[in-house]
Design goal:
mainly alpha; about 70% helix
């Protein structure tokens, strides 16, 4: 995953001379700090998506199924809970698409 992250830098610039400078900035070699006002801005805007990503990385299906196995009406409750989760994911995806409406194609410059 680390190599994939590094290799995408090659496609971000038209001039390969900028790649070395950008990689230096990524790892703090050019005197850049760990965070700045731009990083805090993005953190504030995407904190909900980060929290959702953390929650979704937990095996919630196993936890919910263990809780529902103790109940008699587990199929109905499971269907309702999963439907609510799917609707929430669709709403968040739609909101993210509307928020990021200007997203030029990466290879357009090549």
């Amino acid at each position: 995953m680390f190599l994939v992250l590094i290799s995408w830098v090659i496609f971000a610039f038209e001039d390969l001379g900028q790649v070395g400078s950008y990689l230096g900035n990524m790892f703090g070699l050019n005197g850049t700090s760990l965070y700045n006002s731009e990083a805090l801005y993005y953190l504030q805007n995407y904190i909900i998506i980060i929290i959702i990503g953390i929650i979704c990385s937990i095996p919630l299906k196993n936890i919910v199924s263990k809780i529902l196995n103790k109940r008699k009406e587990k199929q109905v409750v499971y269907a309702i809970v999963s439907s609510i989760c799917y609707i929430g994911i669709i709403l968040l995806s739609t909101a993210s698409l509307v928020n990021n409406s200007f997203n030029p194609f990466l290879y357009f410059r090549f």
